[in-house]
Amino acid sequence: MDLLSLAGLPARYKLWTPQHIKLILNDLLNAGRQPVLDHNHHLTAAIQWLCYAQDKRTQQTDQGGVSAGWSFEDGWLPSYPETSGYIVETFIAAHNVSPQPELLKRASQIIDWELSLQNSDGSFPGHFGETGSSPVIFNTGQIIHGMIAGHYQLNRPECLESAVRAGRWMAACQDSDGCWRRNVHNGIAHTYNSRAAWGLLRAGIAANDNTLIDAACKNFDWVLTQQQQNGWFANNAFTTDAEPFTHTIAYAARGMLEAGILLNHPGYIESALKVAQQLADKQKVDGYLAGTFNENWQSSAYYSCLTGLAQTSIIWSRIRQAGISSEFNSSITIALDYLKTQHNTSHKDPSIRGAVAGSAPIWGRYSMFEFPNWAAKFFADALLVEINDEPVPALLPLPIKVPNGQPSVEITGTDSKVGTQL
Question: Residue 142: how many CA atoms within 13 Å on its side-chain side?
């Protein structure tokens, strides 16, 4: 996209303001390149920005949650239930690397806010800044991750109760083939809901609730039916006429990978490996990864989806941590280096300092002209899993233990989720 095209964008982006002009020129003139510093330096800046985003909602009706981010159009946005939910695990992990009791307090404040939002049927509001927002399967699944962290790592038993209630709502909304077609974004099926099913699975294992485990596995099995031989997932974009962002590609693959690890299921792991290998193959030597891919793993995107790149780095790290393969180590290194070049840790404006844009350049089609909180969250997670060589979220509950060669889980209702220990 050139200057003339930028000038033709809608007025709502307020491209004429001095701050916005500077951010655009920075990307135009030097591709936004920032110095590549050590992991801890970038981690500290990202966590500080997330804390600042949470503080921006102080004395608001959504106090306790984390602002969805900062945008050219609206400035600071309301707290986002979905992403605040999985920021809980990031704050806890950051505390474990460098003890900061304040981060545990912040995580608990998020949980307090989330619990106040939970509907009587167990679901959570699906969007931010909307009174009476309808629940969405994916968003509720992400909040479950935060509740699982609260249960195991903050010793809050009410969090498991909340997660189970949310899981039962998800299971009740599921179609017989394992797909969710009700209470979903844009009213269409999404394979990236495997990441929500991962949350459902964790709740089921933690509560020893086979109904929840069965529902999660039914979704993983359905996702397998949507995967081409080359690893690409159908029905994995926000709309039916779009190519999936690396953000949603990574969401789908992460759900399958973590399910495979928890259930000792080779088929789920293989599904994620196909995606990991394709994305590593498409990565450029400087770490750049295109923002979208079609069914042939080709891309016409002029930008990188920074969120998706950070998520992909986490998948590569988790594959190594789980003892599956170390083939992606160089891909992780250059991915993190590229992300660091897009991470301004010295900007005088705290709205920008430590934030991660949705896209590089900032006018890329994913979260255009925005610094979403989940971009900073996944960048922080990608750094944390390398610094500490531990997963985020923590591997709790632990994977199901079975004798070598025995079925990993015995549940009636589906037949493809029986795996063997790797």
Answer: 23
